[in-house]
Specification:
83 residues; mainly alpha; 5 helices; 57% helix
Amino acid sequence: MSLYIKHMALIQSFECYIPKHHLTYHLLANIHYFGNPVKYATWRDEALNKVLKKACKNSSVFKFDSTVLLRMRDLLELEPEKM
């Protein structure tokens, strides 16, 4: 944790670069309880949020679940290089 605090002090001069430090802090602070973040962290699938948003747009309320799942499949097949 002390290395992370030093890192935060050094990076303050770079105003244009702001990664998710709050998330990183909590991952490190709770590593003794939750274990290795590689086993549960979700940042890898955050890119899917844009695809999900596109899939939800104009979806029918009555068939929302199946419509969104089918649209997500179609969108992911169209743009596999973005995954």
